[in-house]
Amino acid sequence: MPAAVAEELSESSIPVARPVVQVDRLSKRYGEFYALRECTLAVQPGDVFGLLGPNGAGKTTLIRSLLGHLRPTSGSATVDGCDPQVDAVALRRKVSYLPGDARLPRHLRGDAVLSFFAELHPEGDLRRSREVAERLELDLRVRVAMMSTGMRQKLALAVVLGPMTPLLILDEPTANLDPTVRAAVLDLVMEAHAAGRTVMFSSHVLSEIEDTCNRVVFLRRGLLVRELQMRDLFQRHRISAALSSGRTVQSIEIPEAFADCVTVTSLRDSKDSDSKDSDSKGSESEGSESRVRIDTSGDLSPMLRWISELGLKEIRIEPLGLRAVYNDVHRGTDAQSEMPTR
Ligand SMILES: Nc1ncnc2c1ncn2[C@@H]1O[C@H](COP(=O)(O)OP(=O)(O)OP(=O)(O)O)[C@@H](O)[C@H]1O
């Protein structure tokens, strides 16, 4: 079939939604320093999209570039089809944004702050903002200057969660909140998702990202080093075990069928395996017990027979959560680390 016909067919028969956020090779440089380098990503309608990365990784730089608050050095970004550098006014109708360092007028009481921002935002909704404040158990009679850090964060959330914009961008929404309020904020995020809105948020709390996001990207030193669908993460497992006497890690053969989804690592000591792993098979030190770590991706069930025949004992199987991926990315040992984005 000629490519043009195939393209026309696919366009007419399978509706492809336009990404809400499209970022192409976006860079932001300060002098010689890249806060963001060649970042490419797409956020699809209805995504709850997580941004992860250590301090200074470039998360806020990315977010602020999407909002037109920063002018990128190169590359491009669109938000619901708008160029943030050109269509700043149109963009305000589409996005509600919680900055990481939200500044609120200190002389006003909570309720006056909500009224002020509800009037300011084209989609502002005072009733909804008050509802959010009530759910977060915030006393709106208190002046901002007299509020605790957590109270100010709740107020900022009530401001931002008022407008029913199609896109919600939250920079560390749960910072400074106690566990109960954190859970309430995540509920609000999931309600936004259920209402068909798209959410992008950054957090340092991995469990929050695991619980709410369907997709996550990892930034490190300005580079987007990893992109993950959460459903794939839930299909990743780590098996830690001791080898029966006479067995060695070198003797473990990975069957052809699992070659792309299994990695085997030799561990030197059973007690602190993660910090003492070696890079490859082998190198067990003399006198220590031979231990092995097997990381798998994809459905574990067809691999179980092979694993059962490896002569392993003291087997522990755990889901390979974001923590493990984060550690790998942070250490730069992740296979995809330091690769330019797509
Ligand atoms: N105006 C600026 N001039 C020079 N460097 C800057 C400027 N703004 C940010 N940076 C640098 O850019 C890098 C990325 O900063 P950014 O705020 O995007 O990180 P982040 O991932 O949001 O970090 P955090 O988790 O700490 O909030 C940091 O090294 C920061 O020091």
TrEMBL record:
Q: Which residues form the ABC transporter domain?
A: 21-246
Identify a single GO molecular function assigned to this protein. ATP hydrolysis activity
Q: Does the keyword Hydrolase apply?
A: yes
Q: Which SUPFAM superfamilies match?
A: P-loop containing nucleoside triphosphate hydrolases
PROSITE patterns reported for this sequence:
ABC_TRANSPORTER_2
Keyword Iron appears in the UniProt entry: no
Q: What class of enzyme is it?
A: hydrolase
Cite the entry's keywords alphabetically: ATP-binding, Hydrolase, Nucleotide-binding, Transport
Which InterPro entries has this protein been placed in? AAA+_ATPase, ABC_transporter-like_ATP-bd, P-loop_NTPase
* Record EC number: 3.6.3.-
Source domain of life:
Bacteria
Give the CDD domains listed for this entry: ABC_DR_subfamily_A
Residues of the region (Disordered) are 268-296
Q: Which family does it belong to?
A: Belongs to the ABC transporter superfamily.
- What is the name of the protein in this document? Putative ABC transporter ATP-binding protein YxlF
Q: Which organism is it from?
A: Stieleria varia
Tell me the organism's taxonomic lineage. Bacteria, Pseudomonadati, Planctomycetota, Planctomycetia, Pirellulales
